[in-house]
Amino acid sequence: MITVTGRRRWTQEIGRYTPFGLVLAIAAAGIGLIFAYHWRIGSGLIGGSLLVAAALRVLLPERQLGLIALRGRFTDVILYGGLGFLVVLVAATIIGGPFDH
């Protein structure tokens, strides 16, 4: 028999990993697009997933972050945001591609 306390614990754990699941789903969609030879859009999605992680790190409290919170808040936001911005910039500015001849 599941008690109310057990349900709260279960929903809290699901809620705790939802932000990471969102970031992972965006990155997985990007990888899928890369494998479908849409490498620029896929790379942009991977960079976008890092930007989403940075935004979630700023907006959500510590108890809801789950696996997104790796270091201190400032360090995570700078690293996620900086790397995400660079990946999006590179994806947007490269001419040609690995499959062009």
Architecture overview:
The chain crosses the membrane at residues 20-39, 45-65, 77-99. Pfam families: DUF3017 (PF11222). Helix content is 73%, strand content 0%. The model has no long low-confidence stretch (mean pLDDT 86). It is mostly helical and 101 residues long. The chain has helices spanning 4-35, 39-59, 73-93. The protein has one domain.
List the helices and strands and how they pair.
Layout: H1 4-35, H2 39-59, H3 73-93
Main features:
73% helix; 101 residues; mainly alpha
Describe this structure in a few short sentences.
The protein is mostly helical.
Distance between the termini: 63 Å
- Give me the strand/helix succession: HHH
Q: Count helical runs.
A: 3
The amount of helix comes to: over 70%
Extended strand count: 0
Mean pLDDT: 86
Q: Give the helix/strand class.
A: mainly alpha
* Gyration radius over CA: 17 Å
Uncertain runs with pLDDT below 50, 5 residues or more?
none
Principal-axis shape equals: flat
Beta content: under 5%
